[in-house]
Amino acid sequence: MALDDDIRILSGVGIFADFTDEQLRLLAFGAEPARFAAGREIYREGAHADCAYVVALGTVVLYREHEGEAVAVSHIEAGGILSELALIAPTTRLTYAAAETDCQMIRLKRTLFRRILEEYPEAAIELHQRMTQDLYEFLKKIERVAPRFEE
Question: How far is residue 53 from each of residues 7, 98, 125, 142, measured CA to CA in Å?
């Protein structure tokens, strides 16, 4: 894919919503293309995570292990991101990911993402504010459903 295509795709991903054109260009320039044939593993649950993947073309299925079986929990299509937490902090993969169809992905390393946030502290501040708001909204949803689980 061309650099401009990668920039367009990245601009539609929520975590990069507040990035400027220049920041998106740097992110796209430092990204790595990755292709996965249908059925191929992208990563395993519990594996070390040092990068995220943005789906450019195709569909990825995410699985969680449950009682020794892989259970599909989500499908990620073009424009979706896998393992975005890996961009921010050392972590492990929470799911097993496999290409459901032939996929073209954009691989983003944590070191690249951090370098952009260091060069553009205003982007880091905006990202922090968005993540705080997302967490607040998530907690409000939990509070609404919590009474259903009380004895």
Answer: 14, 12, 23, 28
